[in-house]
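Researcher: Next sequence.
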Amino acid sequence: MKTIVTGSIAILCMFVYSVNAQELSPFTGNSRRPFLIDNIRQDDLQRLGAELSEQQVMGCFVSNLTLEQRSAIKTLVLTKNKQKLQIDNKLNEKRAQLKSLESSEKPKLKSINKIIDEIGALIVSRMKVEAECKQKIRNILTEEQRVEFDLNQ
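Model: Next structure:
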């Protein structure tokens, strides 16, 4: 009987010890985290990440962008995003109207079809804004950059 109690206490102590040892994991916010990358290398990685994000055009990596190209592309993308935001807001309004019409007591099919047509027109105009921006960006790029951009789209 004493061996069973002693064995149970020993197992319980090992369990408590292993739980306490696990509290020092890197995800608990403890200051005793493993240090995998030295500060110099970490700075290099952050700098590289910033450079790579500056070389991205509409989610695609394009190499050797000049400062003029970057600023022109940023302006185009900002204009595109503003236009898309306006269209998306109208699209959300139309979808809410459609939902209201469809869930009414006596839905009118003519009204529902009209809203569906308006939603379709907004989707088409959103796609046109995207295509226009893409073509303007392609005009800014050099031939090699254009090929790289088109391959990644």
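Model: Residues 67-102 form the longest helix (36 residues). The chain has a mean pLDDT of 79.
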